[in-house]
Amino acid sequence: METTNLKAIPDFDGYLINENGQVFSLKNDAANQFSNGMHELKQLKRKYGGPVVSLTRNGNVYQKKVTRLVANIFNRKKIFENKPNEKWKKTKFSCIEISNFGRIRKQGDYYDDSDMTYCKYKELQTFDNGHGYKAININGKQQYVHRLVATAFIPNLNDLPAVNHKDENKSNNNVDNLEWCTAKYNVNYGTYKKRVSWSKSKPVIGFGKTKVSILKHADNAIRNNIKGISRSSRKMKWRFLKFDFNGLKKLKLTNVEELEKQND
C-alpha cells in the first residue's frame, strides 16, 4: 500500500489518492466518521472505461473514475501535438477547429485511461466521401475538409462558390494547395476532362517484349486476346486495366512483371 504523495480528493472530505490510482478513506465505514487510521478502498473494475471507486458525501454515494481523478488532481495534462508550422483556426461549429494542413480537432476534456492523462483536444478522423474528397460528419451533416480549410484561411473577397485543388489531388487539403474559384474554372481545371473521359472508358493494357501500351478502349482483336481466343494482338498480351487515370499519370514502367501481377 503506497501512502506517500497523497492528495485530497476535492469535494469529498476524508478521501485521499496517490498517483498510482490507489484511493484511501479516513472514515469509519459503519458510522461514516473520521478515524485515526485509513484504509484503501476497493475498486470496481469495468469492462470498458477503467476502474471506478465509490465515494460518499452527505449520505449519497458517487462512483468516480480513478483514472480521471489521478489525471485531474495531479494535473497530468498532455499537450496536443502539432505538426511543424501547423496553425489552427476556429470554424463556425462549436468547439471544432481546422488546421492549415486539413486536420480537424475538437476542444474538450479527453482522458486516456492507459496512462491516466488528459488532453484538451482530440483529433477527429475524416473519411473518403466515395469520390476522393475528405469529409467529416458534424452535427449529423457531412462537411468537406477542403471547404473548411478554405473558409478559415483563404479570404474569399469575390464570394466565389467553389474550392479548387491545385495539384488535382482531392485528398491534399493543405491550404497552399487550395484556391477559391468559379464552378466553370473548377470543372475545366487541369486534366479534369481527360479524367472524366477515362472514367467512362474501359481501358486495357498490353504487355510486349520491349514495351507496354495503354488504350482507352479495346478493339475486337484485343478483346479476343483478353478472352483467350487469340494468343496475342499487335504482338502483345492484353488485359483490362485495374487502376484509374490518376494512377496512369504516376505510372513508372520500371518493372513490367510487377505491373503484370497488379493486373492479373
From TrEMBL:
**Database matches in InterPro entries:** His-Me_finger_sf, HNH_nuc
Q: Which domain of life is it from?
A: Bacteria
HNH nuclease domain residues are 139-187
Identify this protein by name: HNH nuclease domain-containing protein
> To which species is this protein native?
Fructilactobacillus florum DSM 22689 = JCM 16035
Q: What does UniProt list as this organism's lineage?
A: Bacteria, Bacillati, Bacillota, Bacilli, Lactobacillales
